[in-house]
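Checked the freezer inventory, then went back to the computational side. Two predictions to log before the end of the day. The first one is the construct we discussed on Monday; recording sequence and tokens without edits.
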Amino acid sequence: MNRKLLIIPFIIGVLVLQFTNAKLNNYQQKIEQLQNNIETIEDKTITLENKVEDNNNKINNIQQPNRGSDRTFEVLASAYTHMDEGCNMITYSENKVREGHTIAVNPDQIPIGSIVYIKSEDEQVSGYYVAEDIGGAISTGRIDLYMEDKERALDFGIQSVEIQIIKYGWNG
């Protein structure tokens, strides 16, 4: 009887050890999955950082055009989303942002409320827009197109587009 009593704790110990090993293997698999996720996120971050750096280089290497008195001129266009820092769904003119409609401008060059036609190599971008928003990075010779999708906005990058002002400001 004493021998049987001694075997029971041994069997319990073996079962606990097997259970613990199974749990450890499960945790190791989860750790490996998390490490793979981190590597994927790091790769995507590097890709996005490279795109931002390329866009910044484009900005620095292209001379800014002056407006002058002409109603048609070239500008550098970039894209923004409501997910960008400092942005939301409401424009400076207190309208809801809309893709294919809203642009951010330097109001000294293109007054708020102006209707413009944008001609771009990207056919999805070409069309009529309303200058409804402003931005801290928007200087003379720059506009920002509102896009809903962050990835599409990053892919758009910075492009030279032709702008024709159809109507200046709300009262123009």
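The second is the one RB wanted added to the comparison set:
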Amino acid sequence: MGASIRVTIPTPLRQYTANRDSVEVQAKDVREAIGALVSQYDQLRRHLFNDQGQLRNFVNVYVNEEDIRYLQKESTPLTEGDTVSIVPSIAGGNLSTMDLLAAKRKDALSPAEIKRYSRHLILPEVGMQGQLKLKQSSALIVGAGGLGNRSSSTSVPRAWAVSASWTST
């Protein structure tokens, strides 16, 4: 049996842990801690792991605020009282020329878009492929003021919408 570990749950995933912001588990390393978490809350598995059983690209894990990618990854040992934090990937910084160019591309997400849609990216129903499909799509809103209409501006992001209006004669 391992040490008593606190695993913090990000807000978008709390619905799968009975709205708990943290869960106590017993574990010797990060792999065991996350395994114990998903054994208690099985619906988390598809949000944290891909079909090959690897942590999803947009899920970062920290032990006491240290990124496990720079430690021993999932083999990072844990000691009594450690905190394991699950954090959706978020890019930061100002928009650079490269960000602006990437934002125009339909086959990739810019760091700013990854930040904006980070909660979507960790959902297996959306993920990177789904978000790219959304980026490549558009919606035609006809009548009722088009994008000026409150209902259309809240239901369809402006970047996806093309507004058209007709007047009857």
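For RB: The radius of gyration is 20 Å. The chain has a mean pLDDT of 74. Let me know if you want it refolded.
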